[in-house]
Amino acid sequence: MTLSTADIRRKFIEYFSRNGHQAVASSSLVPADDPTLLFTNAGMNQFKDVFLGSEKRSYTRAVSSQRCVRAGGKHNDLENVGYTARHHTFFEMLGNFSFGDYFKQEAIQFAWSFLTEELKLPKDKLLVTVYAEDDEAFDIWENQIGVPKEKIIRIATSDNFWSMGDTGPCGPCSEIFYDHGEHIWGGPPGTSEEDGDRFIEIWNLVFMQFNRQADGTMEPLPKPSIDTGMGLERISAIMQHVHSNYEIDLFDNLIKAAATIVGTEDLSNKSLRVIADHIRSCAFLVCDGVMPSNEGRGYVLRRIIRRAVRHGYQLGASDIFFYKLVEALIKEMGEAYPELKDQKPVIEKVLRVEEEQFSKTLSRGMNILNEALEALEGTVIPGELVFKLYDTYGFPTDLTADVAREHDYTIDEDGFQAAMQAQRKRAQEASQFGADYNDTLRVEQETAFTGYDKGEQESNVV
Ligand code: ATP
Ligand code: MG
Ligand code: MG
Ligand code: MG
Which residue numbers delimit the Alanyl-transfer RNA synthetases family profile domain (predicted)? Predict the structure, then answer.
């Protein structure tokens, strides 16, 4: 069976609706009333208060396809884009939720039946993990579902134990993996080669079972709940018989559009994948009201745009190009997300203006960086240079690090921070004489982006 990405999204919602779940629309990428969370990064975010019991809904089962961004804060997959087959900055998370309704057994059964009956995935390609101590989940997989013992892997790390924070709801997880075949490097979860892309995690089932107290004790929740998340692009890859998310219908079209716009014929170029990924996060972030700026969410957006622009430059784009991809994106995703169509003029304008601004300094900055790389002894780019590129040419540090990585170099983070401190000190001293350095200072303070890191909710699993 081959299914389009749009078909899978639809099938998922239909399947769970048929099974008593309320279909709930994706919430914004900017979390409502939650300043501790950088961007919506999981389907459960919009239900946080329902899980905590402080908000009541008219339903106890829900299903959604949630737009997510993981490009900063605790969950940062920005660096993975272009390097793994399975990570995006923007992706959609399909999820089914039980608010004190069904629990472990039904959650496992729903997931298994969706994959093997609705999508007809071959059972022998699937393997699962459970939390090391979760005998109950192990037993359900083995005896009720019939997964052979050797394909149920016990994991003792936090990868298989989810918690919302230091206290509050938490519980074990069970993850479902798909084996893409021996020809791809990687080992099953729990082995030293698990970071490879042979066994790809597709679905995470979280069993919210305990309420962790301040003293660490685990009280059983009176009404345990379920939170699950499956990456739409990852399941699409499987259903379209390709290995990488970047080969699915949606990305294939975006990559071709990007190639035409920047004027390259090398469709396998990594930079095209980066651009196709970044147009999704950037367009959706602007659509949800984020504007490029020097602080907070806006600075993360600015960094992603500049990164995409640099990759276009790398491919030889001779003109402002990034905004032109909005049209292709709307073709792929406008039906599922009509707001993208409504906001088209705004999105295009914001991306165009940001690129125009950055392109003024990009090529000079790149020349300086390339010359420095040629003259460099060792493999670490000095912090002073990273700072100069940042301060004078508008290169966010991750952009310089991205270029460095392409040459197997790294950047000197500590040296960069020291250069930044020195500048701050100079600015403070100068301010005694009434000089105005405020603009510069704001940019500097944002670079490390620690603001959201500290208190960000622990929604790392789904
Ligand atoms: P991985 O270990 O592959 O990074 P994860 O454990 O961080 O995934 P979860 O937090 O469990 O992912 O999210 C639930 C599901 O969302 C995953 O099983 C996966 O299918 C999907 N997913 C997570 N991160 C990404 C991403 N950056 N791009 C695409 N899909 C993702
Ligand atoms: Mg991850
Ligand atoms: Mg994982
Ligand atoms: Mg996971």
Answer: 3-462
Q: What is the pLDDT of residue 198?
A: 97
Q: Which helix (H) or strand (E) holds 119?
A: none
Q: Closest ligand 1 atom to the C-alpha of 231?
A: 20
Burial class, 241, CB count within 10 angstroms (exposed 0-12 / middle 13-18 / buried 19+): exposed
Model confidence at 419, in pLDDT bands (50, 70, 90)?
very high
State the ligand closest to the CA atom of 41. 1
Type and span of the H or E element at 75: strand 75-76
- The residues, any chain, with a CB within 8 Å of residue 113's CB and separated by 6 or more, are none
Q: Maximum distance among all alpha carbons in the chain?
A: 76
- pTM of the full structure: 0.92
Write the pLDDT tens digit of every residue in 305-321: 999 999 999 999 989 99
The number of helix segments (H) and strand segments (E) in the chain equals 15, 13
8 A C-beta contact, residue 269 and residue 315: yes
Which residues, in sequence order, are bridge partners of residue 154? 130
Which two structure tokens, joined as six digits, stand for 187?
A: 């080992």
Provide the pLDDT for residue 142: 98
CA–centroid distance, residue 323 to ligand 3 (Å)? 33
Is 442's pLDDT higher than 80?
no
Residue whose CA is closest, atom 5 of ligand 1?
461
For a substitution probing ligand 1, which of 41, 45, 87 has the most ligand atoms within 8 Å of its CB? Answer: 87
